[in-house]
Please model this.
Amino acid sequence: MRRKLFGGVRLAILLLAGGNIAVASTAPEAGEKRKIEIELRLMFWAVAAGADDLPSGTPAPTPQVEDVQDLFLRRGRLILKAQASPRLEIYAQLGQDNVGSKVLRDDAGFRIKDLYVNYKRADALQLMVGQFKVPFLRQNLESGFNQLLVDRAALTALRPALEGSRDQGGMIWGSRGGFQYRVAAFDGSDQEDSNSASSLRGSARVSWNWFTPETGPGYTGTSIGEKRILQVGAQADAQNHRLDSKDDAGFTGLSRAYRAWAADLFYDQPFAGTWALTFEGAWLERRDDYDGPGVETREIGGYYAQAGLLLPGHLGPGRLQVVARFEDLDSGRGTVASGVRSRAAGLTYFGKGHGRKIQLDYTERRERPADLDNDAIRLSLITVF
Model:
């Protein structure tokens, strides 16, 4: 298990030594402001995990009787940004997740992740149309390539269906000073093939920043000691007549009124220019009221808190950060209840910011009422060109 987990370290060293060789842009003509940028992002994982980490529906042989060792491309992204005019930006993100993975389900091949047009009338009034991230939870609005630990908290996956954190629709949003708002309407993404009765999905998020404003559509998981940031946010997500393919067996095809609301906090504080503290936490409640008679309401809730300490000094060309996370999730349907608590500890080596880094973490999970063998060690290598 250790040989396979750490066999990727040699590959990590080679890739971390690489440079930004694949970034390209078109120089604008005199007096023009048009620009195209291209970026390639790669995230490799080596995982040693318990047998119960295999996703449901995994092909035979099942059940898994031994620990799982896996080495795979967790995320691959090709990003294109086009500044068509000072007010108009076109953004596309294409990619594939979990290629060849045992512990994560394949993400249906190479596909469009984001594709949208953003019209900026002013900083406080912008319109985004296309496929993009739902404005719900700061950690979902952070790139998977700049997370504090190897990956996001499980709390961020308490959204319905398999469309992930993205959906198709339009959003009015903007920033003024430290205040930012986002109000969006979506079609529910994966509902049209299986549910002709679903209504539009509505999502909204408001946040306030002290110290450093964050005015873009995405956030960072840590500024690596470069900025002082304090953000608090509140958000809601709702859709009527919704199906949920991630619901418990026997309930996935039932129509329901889905409601979720959450609050989150992010704090990034450099100290004396040598070390820095990053803290992030969120609380979420979700409620599914089924449309059919005699079906108990499903309620899910939980929270997570995580912190990272960027250590002073350098190790070679880069820096080290130690990280820890605690998470508690509970689910109930009438008298039936379940839950999971997770503790994780990790270490990140930043070779060149978020674009060249190695992350290692260990997660211990304890389920209720039946415990599972699903602790995991993950080694992640990120390289951006």
User: Anything to note?
Assistant: The first strand starts at residue 24 and ends at 25. The chain has three helices and 17 strands. Residues 9-16 form the longest helix (8 residues). Helices lie at 2-6, 9-16, 138-141.
